[in-house]
Amino acid sequence: xxxxxxxxxxxxxxxxxxxxxxxxxxxxxxxxxxxxxxxxxxxxxxxxxxxxxxxxxxxxxxxxxxxxxxxxxxxxxxxxxxxxxxxxxxxxxxxxxxxxxxxxxxxxxxxxxxxxxxxxxxxxxxxxxxxxxxxxxxxxxxxxxxxxxxxxxxxxxxxxxxxxxxxxxxxxxxxxxxxxxxxxxxxx
Length: 188
Ligand SMILES: *[C@@H]1O[C@H](CO)[C@@H](O)[C@H](O)[C@H]1NC(C)=O
Ligand SMILES: *[C@@H]1O[C@H](CO)[C@@H](O)[C@H](O)[C@H]1NC(C)=O
Ligand SMILES: *[C@@H]1O[C@H](CO)[C@@H](O)[C@H](O)[C@H]1NC(C)=O
Hints:
Belongs to the plant dirigent protein family. Keywords: Apoplast, Secreted, Signal. It holds the Pfam family Dirigent. With 188 residues, the protein is mostly beta strands. It has one domain (38-187): AOC barrel-like. It contains 1 helix and 9 strands; from the N terminus they run H-E-E-E-E-E-E-E-E-E. It has an 8-stranded antiparallel barrel with strand order 1-3-4-5-6-7-8-9. The longest helix is centred in the first third of the chain and has 22 residues, at 2-23. The structure holds 2-acetamido-2-deoxy-beta-D-glucopyranose (NAG) (3 copies). Residues 123-124, 128-129 line the site of one 2-acetamido-2-deoxy-beta-D-glucopyranose.
């Protein structure tokens, strides 16, 4: 009887030890399929970005600048926050597929070189509710600019890729712009 009790308590102690050991880990290797990820896909997204600075309801606002920004030909030091609509066609009235939310700042003294830090928040089809994060340099007066996609959420988990931006229309008087985006992204 006493011997059985002893064996039982050793067994219990052993299982308690192994349970606490398997509960405590900092890292381990897992397979992508254990997270429901099967095959990596490449998706091409195409949309138009509306950056409206001058309007009754602007979508981008300047929030800061340096004392010397107004004497800089590149607006060095100016910081803008945007919540810009993304549409399927160049017209603002065309179907909205998402929004570009983030910051752009003039970070070059020799050309119009913007630091772009933003999230594309999508609202269309299977991408509704998923986001992509962009961090890159945008030489806004050049032809096609390329910015890295550094990650994403929702269907865009594990994303990597790039976005190409090409100015569709730019009004020098108002500063308002429509920019065509082609985004190429790997995700599961
Ligand atoms: C630039 O802005 C500063 C205030 O930040 C002002 O004192 C200065 O007069 C402005 N310079 C020009 C050229 O507008
Ligand atoms: C996107 O998702 C939101 C919330 O789940 C929903 O209200 C909305 O109707 C969806 N939009 C589209 C275009 O599917
Ligand atoms: C994407 O961003 C929106 C806000 O724009 C947020 O509501 C949503 O939860 C994000 N999606 C995921 C999958 O995190």
